[in-house]
Amino acid sequence: MLTFTIRRLILAVPTLLFISLVIFLLLELAPGDPMAQVPLTVPPEVKEKMRLALGLGEPVHIRFWKWLVQFFWIEPQVLLDHYFGTTFSEGDLRVISWQTRSPVMDIVVQRLPQTLWVVGTAYVVAILIALPIGIYSAYRQYSWFDQMGTFVSMVGFSVPPFFSGVLVIVIFSVQLGWFPSIYDTTLVVDSWDSFVKQLQQMIMPVMVLALQITAQLSRFMRASMLDNLNQDYVRTARAKGLSEYIVVMVHVLRNSMIPVVTVIALGIPSIFGGAIITEQVFKVNGIGQLLIGAIQANDLPMVQTLTFIFAVLIVLFNLIADVLYGILDPRIRYD
């Protein structure tokens, strides 16, 4: 397992380099001009100087190389300087946002807690709800519980977040007045009252996201359980006199979790990517809203960095899912 993990990590390096090149070239070919937000009263020669200051006057390969050095060499040094008080990155130019003229990673670190509070909580809640629903729905196939779970899952799949988000705002904020309709990103949790306010403003966006995620995971869990409940090893375990709880929750569940682990692991990067639509509806100042704002402002360094971070997370959690396969199923070997 260790050899397999090291081999996959080594192979991930050229993969990520190729992904970064594709992202960079696609953004270069994308329409839009970073000078489009500059007022029309600014003279053309001043705009050209601003363009050169942003590094747009250099060839594509030079700019790509500079971004690689900044992201893979300078930014890790900044992290070391922050935690250990060293001066490795002193005087080095970091990846700078064209929109805010500040380091991209500093902005990402500021926005990330808001996204993790909302999207991360929704993902955990969805997993805790979806897995038991999927297990019991499969065990009691075609029962009223299974039918109800199928109905709720279809609703979760069918209703888009921009509709369900507005719907819960109308019901719980406008009609009932229970929760705030706008997420207050400036709230500092330093007391019990502020913690209660944080929970209140999280309930609606978490509800909207958890419904969608639960619908997907519960269906995967149910389908995987049904595939395993009729296998020969299940009949053998029952014939040996094992209790129904042991058969279902130990033997069947362990094998059924293998495909579900893939869905869960590959869904975790979306936590860091934020829920773009939901963050827009509830005004959550997170990573998703940051990405939308950067795209609208033609902030290529911000878009490129965020997109590449998502790619790194996807590659990483692909590896984690493969390792978990071997833990869940001893028959899988990575020799």
Short description:
By secondary structure, the chain is mainly α. The mean pLDDT is 79.
Number of domains: 2
State the helix count.
Answer: 13
The count of β-strands is 0
* CATH level 1 name of the largest domain: Mainly Alpha
Helical content class: over 70%
Global morphology: globular
Ends distance: 8 Å
Estimate the strand proportion.
under 5%
CATH fold label of the largest domain: MetI-like fold
Describe this structure in words.
75% of the residues lie in helices and 0% in strands. With 335 residues, it is an all-alpha fold. It has 2 domains: 2-84, no CATH class; 111-296, MetI-like fold (Orthogonal Bundle), CATH 1.10.3720. The longest helix is centred in the middle third of the chain and has 38 residues, at 192-229.
Offer a few descriptive terms.
335 residues; mainly alpha; MetI-like fold; 2 domains; 75% helix
Topology:
Elements: H1 2-29, H2 44-53, H3 60-84, H4 104-139, H5 144-158, H6 161-175, H7 192-229, H8 232-239, H9 244-267, H10 269-273, H11 276-282, H12 287-296, H13 300-328
Helix pairs in contact: 1-13, 4-5, 4-7, 5-7, 6-7, 6-11, 7-9, 8-9, 9-13, 11-12, 12-13
